Amino acid sequence: MERSSAGISFDVVVIGASAGGVQALGQLLPRLPAHFAPAMVVVLHQPADSSGVLAEMFDAKCRLPVRLAEDKQPLVGGTVLFAPPGYHTLIEGDSAVALSLDAPEHYSRPSIDVLFESAAWGFRERALGILLTGASADGAAGLRLIQRAGGGAWVQDPATAVSDLMPKSALELGVPAQVLSLEQMSRRLAHMATSHSDVTVQGDVRNDKERN
Questions:
Q1: What residues make up the domain containing 115?
Q2: Which of 49, 82, 110, 176 is 20 to 30 A off residue 198, Cα-Cα?
Q3: CATH code, 196
Q4: Strands (E), the chain
Q5: pLDDT given at position 209
Q6: Active-site positions?
Q7: At what angle do helices 54-61 and 21-28 cross, to 10 degrees?
Q8: What is the pLDDT of residue 204?
Protein backbone atom coordinates (compact mmCIF):
# COMPACT_ATOMS: atom_id res chain seq x y z
CA MET A 1 0.00 0.00 0.00
CA GLU A 2 1.57 3.25 -1.14
CA ARG A 3 1.19 6.83 -0.04
CA SER A 4 -0.01 9.65 -2.20
CA SER A 5 1.54 13.10 -2.16
CA ALA A 6 -1.14 14.06 0.37
CA GLY A 7 0.02 11.32 2.75
CA ILE A 8 -3.03 9.10 2.23
CA SER A 9 -2.78 5.46 1.22
CA PHE A 10 -4.77 4.10 -1.73
CA ASP A 11 -4.89 0.55 -3.05
CA VAL A 12 -7.28 1.24 -5.92
CA VAL A 13 -7.90 4.25 -8.14
CA VAL A 14 -11.22 4.39 -9.99
CA ILE A 15 -11.72 6.92 -12.78
CA GLY A 16 -14.88 8.02 -14.56
CA ALA A 17 -15.19 10.11 -17.70
CA SER A 18 -17.54 10.79 -20.59
CA ALA A 19 -17.43 13.51 -23.25
CA GLY A 20 -13.81 14.58 -23.69
CA GLY A 21 -12.64 11.62 -21.65
CA VAL A 22 -10.31 10.12 -24.24
CA GLN A 23 -8.34 13.37 -24.37
CA ALA A 24 -8.27 13.69 -20.57
CA LEU A 25 -7.14 10.11 -20.07
CA GLY A 26 -4.54 10.71 -22.74
CA GLN A 27 -2.99 13.30 -20.45
CA LEU A 28 -3.12 11.06 -17.35
CA LEU A 29 -2.49 7.42 -18.20
CA PRO A 30 0.70 7.69 -20.30
CA ARG A 31 2.29 9.67 -17.46
CA LEU A 32 1.77 6.99 -14.82
CA PRO A 33 5.16 5.66 -13.70
CA ALA A 34 6.23 2.12 -14.53
CA HIS A 35 5.92 1.14 -10.87
CA PHE A 36 2.60 2.76 -10.09
CA ALA A 37 1.34 0.88 -7.05
CA PRO A 38 -2.48 0.88 -6.95
CA ALA A 39 -4.78 -1.07 -9.21
CA MET A 40 -6.78 1.19 -11.53
CA VAL A 41 -10.22 0.72 -13.08
CA VAL A 42 -11.61 3.15 -15.66
CA VAL A 43 -15.16 3.70 -16.87
CA LEU A 44 -15.45 5.76 -20.04
CA HIS A 45 -18.94 6.16 -21.48
CA GLN A 46 -19.08 4.44 -24.87
CA PRO A 47 -21.87 3.07 -27.05
CA ALA A 48 -22.60 -0.60 -26.33
CA ASP A 49 -21.60 -1.54 -29.88
CA SER A 50 -18.14 0.05 -29.60
CA SER A 51 -15.24 -2.21 -30.48
CA GLY A 52 -13.48 -1.82 -27.14
CA VAL A 53 -10.13 -0.84 -28.68
CA LEU A 54 -9.39 1.90 -26.15
CA ALA A 55 -7.54 -0.47 -23.84
CA GLU A 56 -5.33 -1.61 -26.71
CA MET A 57 -4.76 1.98 -27.80
CA PHE A 58 -3.70 3.10 -24.33
CA ASP A 59 -1.62 -0.02 -23.75
CA ALA A 60 0.58 1.04 -26.66
CA LYS A 61 1.09 4.49 -25.10
CA CYS A 62 1.52 3.63 -21.41
CA ARG A 63 4.27 2.25 -19.22
CA LEU A 64 1.68 0.18 -17.39
CA PRO A 65 -0.28 -2.72 -18.88
CA VAL A 66 -3.76 -1.60 -19.93
CA ARG A 67 -6.41 -4.29 -20.39
CA LEU A 68 -10.12 -4.65 -21.07
CA ALA A 69 -11.73 -5.92 -17.86
CA GLU A 70 -13.00 -9.50 -17.83
CA ASP A 71 -15.51 -11.05 -15.47
CA LYS A 72 -13.90 -12.35 -12.24
CA GLN A 73 -10.52 -10.92 -13.26
CA PRO A 74 -8.26 -10.34 -10.24
CA LEU A 75 -7.32 -6.77 -9.38
CA VAL A 76 -3.58 -6.32 -9.82
CA GLY A 77 -1.50 -3.42 -8.59
CA GLY A 78 0.04 -1.42 -11.41
CA THR A 79 -2.49 -2.57 -14.01
CA VAL A 80 -5.17 -0.41 -15.66
CA LEU A 81 -8.51 -2.06 -16.49
CA PHE A 82 -11.07 -0.46 -18.82
CA ALA A 83 -14.75 -1.29 -18.45
CA PRO A 84 -15.88 -3.04 -21.65
CA PRO A 85 -18.61 -1.33 -23.68
CA GLY A 86 -22.10 -2.47 -22.71
CA TYR A 87 -21.18 -3.89 -19.29
CA HIS A 88 -21.26 -2.41 -15.83
CA THR A 89 -17.89 -3.06 -14.20
CA LEU A 90 -17.84 -3.53 -10.43
CA ILE A 91 -15.24 -4.38 -7.84
CA GLU A 92 -16.11 -7.51 -5.85
CA GLY A 93 -14.81 -7.13 -2.32
CA ASP A 94 -11.24 -5.97 -2.71
CA SER A 95 -9.85 -8.65 -5.00
CA ALA A 96 -11.58 -8.90 -8.39
CA VAL A 97 -13.82 -7.20 -10.91
CA ALA A 98 -17.22 -8.39 -12.07
CA LEU A 99 -19.21 -7.54 -15.19
CA SER A 100 -22.96 -7.00 -15.13
CA LEU A 101 -25.78 -6.54 -17.63
CA ASP A 102 -28.04 -4.81 -15.11
CA ALA A 103 -30.10 -1.89 -16.37
CA PRO A 104 -28.20 1.28 -17.40
CA GLU A 105 -27.80 4.04 -14.83
CA HIS A 106 -27.87 7.65 -16.01
CA TYR A 107 -28.57 6.08 -19.41
CA SER A 108 -25.13 4.49 -19.32
CA ARG A 109 -23.76 0.99 -19.14
CA PRO A 110 -21.02 0.96 -17.98
CA SER A 111 -21.97 3.41 -15.27
CA ILE A 112 -19.44 5.39 -13.28
CA ASP A 113 -21.68 5.36 -10.21
CA VAL A 114 -21.81 1.56 -10.26
CA LEU A 115 -18.01 1.32 -10.29
CA PHE A 116 -17.49 4.03 -7.69
CA GLU A 117 -20.07 2.61 -5.29
CA SER A 118 -18.50 -0.86 -5.45
CA ALA A 119 -15.05 0.63 -4.80
CA ALA A 120 -16.40 2.47 -1.77
CA TRP A 121 -17.86 -0.72 -0.29
CA GLY A 122 -14.84 -2.88 -1.12
CA PHE A 123 -11.96 -0.54 -0.32
CA ARG A 124 -13.40 2.27 1.80
CA GLU A 125 -10.52 4.58 2.85
CA ARG A 126 -8.15 2.77 0.48
CA ALA A 127 -10.06 3.95 -2.64
CA LEU A 128 -9.45 7.10 -4.63
CA GLY A 129 -12.22 8.23 -6.99
CA ILE A 130 -11.44 10.61 -9.86
CA LEU A 131 -14.22 12.23 -11.88
CA LEU A 132 -13.19 13.82 -15.15
CA THR A 133 -14.89 15.67 -17.98
CA GLY A 134 -18.36 14.55 -19.01
CA ALA A 135 -21.85 15.59 -20.05
CA SER A 136 -23.94 13.80 -17.42
CA ALA A 137 -24.32 13.54 -13.64
CA ASP A 138 -23.05 9.96 -13.60
CA GLY A 139 -20.35 9.50 -10.96
CA ALA A 140 -21.40 12.28 -8.58
CA ALA A 141 -23.29 10.05 -6.14
CA GLY A 142 -20.63 7.35 -6.32
CA LEU A 143 -17.86 9.84 -5.62
CA ARG A 144 -19.78 11.09 -2.59
CA LEU A 145 -20.02 7.51 -1.32
CA ILE A 146 -16.26 7.01 -1.72
CA GLN A 147 -15.62 10.20 0.24
CA ARG A 148 -18.10 9.25 2.97
CA ALA A 149 -16.40 5.85 3.28
CA GLY A 150 -13.13 7.63 4.03
CA GLY A 151 -11.59 7.48 0.57
CA GLY A 152 -10.20 10.23 -1.61
CA ALA A 153 -12.23 12.29 -4.08
CA TRP A 154 -10.82 14.32 -6.95
CA VAL A 155 -12.69 16.16 -9.69
CA GLN A 156 -11.29 17.79 -12.77
CA ASP A 157 -11.42 21.55 -12.56
CA PRO A 158 -14.61 22.32 -14.53
CA ALA A 159 -12.88 25.29 -16.16
CA THR A 160 -10.45 22.86 -17.84
CA ALA A 161 -12.99 20.20 -18.86
CA VAL A 162 -14.25 19.69 -22.41
CA SER A 163 -17.67 19.18 -20.80
CA ASP A 164 -18.02 20.56 -17.29
CA LEU A 165 -21.36 18.99 -16.29
CA MET A 166 -19.88 15.87 -14.73
CA PRO A 167 -17.40 17.54 -12.37
CA LYS A 168 -19.87 20.32 -11.60
CA SER A 169 -22.53 17.75 -10.68
CA ALA A 170 -20.28 16.29 -8.00
CA LEU A 171 -19.47 19.71 -6.57
CA GLU A 172 -23.12 20.78 -6.63
CA LEU A 173 -24.01 17.57 -4.78
CA GLY A 174 -21.73 18.77 -2.01
CA VAL A 175 -18.90 16.28 -2.45
CA PRO A 176 -15.89 17.79 -0.62
CA ALA A 177 -13.59 16.82 -3.47
CA GLN A 178 -10.24 18.28 -4.40
CA VAL A 179 -10.62 20.30 -7.59
CA LEU A 180 -7.54 19.74 -9.73
CA SER A 181 -6.26 20.29 -13.22
CA LEU A 182 -5.10 17.27 -15.22
CA GLU A 183 -1.52 18.41 -14.69
CA GLN A 184 -2.00 18.49 -10.92
CA MET A 185 -3.60 15.03 -11.01
CA SER A 186 -0.71 13.66 -13.05
CA ARG A 187 1.84 14.93 -10.56
CA ARG A 188 -0.04 13.48 -7.58
CA LEU A 189 -0.61 10.12 -9.25
CA ALA A 190 3.10 9.92 -10.06
CA HIS A 191 3.81 9.81 -6.32
CA MET A 192 1.77 6.62 -5.94
CA ALA A 193 4.66 4.44 -7.05
CA THR A 194 6.34 1.50 -5.41
CA SER A 195 9.74 2.25 -3.98
CA HIS A 196 11.50 -0.76 -5.50
CA SER A 197 11.98 -1.42 -9.21
CA ASP A 198 11.93 -5.20 -8.79
CA VAL A 199 8.30 -5.35 -7.64
CA THR A 200 6.37 -8.48 -8.61
CA VAL A 201 2.62 -8.36 -9.13
CA GLN A 202 0.04 -11.09 -9.40
CA GLY A 203 0.16 -12.83 -12.76
CA ASP A 204 3.32 -10.97 -13.82
CA VAL A 205 1.20 -8.64 -15.94
CA ARG A 206 3.47 -5.68 -15.33
CA ASN A 207 6.62 -7.75 -15.78
CA ASP A 208 5.33 -8.96 -19.14
CA LYS A 209 4.78 -5.35 -20.20
CA GLU A 210 8.32 -4.40 -19.21
CA ARG A 211 9.82 -7.29 -21.15
CA ASN A 212 7.95 -6.37 -24.34
A1: 2-211
A2: 82
A3: 3.40.50.180
A4: 2-3, 9-10, 12-17, 39-44, 66-68, 80-82, 88-92, 96-100, 127-131, 152-156, 178-180
A5: 59
A6: 18, 45, 138
A7: 30
A8: 39
